[in-house]
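Reagents: none. Just compute today. Tetratricopeptide repeat protein.
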Amino acid sequence: MRAKITYFLLAAVLVVYFVLVGSRGVLLIEQGTAVTIAFGVAVLVLPFIGAWFLWHTTRFARRAGRLARQLEAEGGLPVDELERTPSGRIDRASADAVFARRQAEAEQNPDDWRSWFRLAVAYHDARDTPRARKAMQHAIALHEAARRD
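Predicted 3D structure written out:
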């Protein structure tokens, strides 16, 4: 719950920032000189890029959360079986072992969104965020395709 509150708080701060930057861009355009118009247009592009990124990230998080809730209801969420160091960090060898099992599961069931979801969690635990995100995107795509069928 704390993560959700933090996310929404930061998203609200970003939206306020986008409005402030956008208003500065409009003010620059209203000055009417070639230089200020060019700067104003450039400044207006930034909030649109930021808003697109925020929307895309929020959409991804909501879809991944929907999959997690469904998998939890089915009793299929991956169990935390990772060993931890005394400081609480995940042991790398333990994460690699779990990852190998999850990868084999995904290779055996390439069309099952559940195995891809668990693989994404294993990638995350192994601290490979880009691959974790791609695996989760694949799980989301498989889930949505299954819902359409």
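The two ends are 33 Å apart (CA to CA).
Action item: order primers for follow-up constructs.
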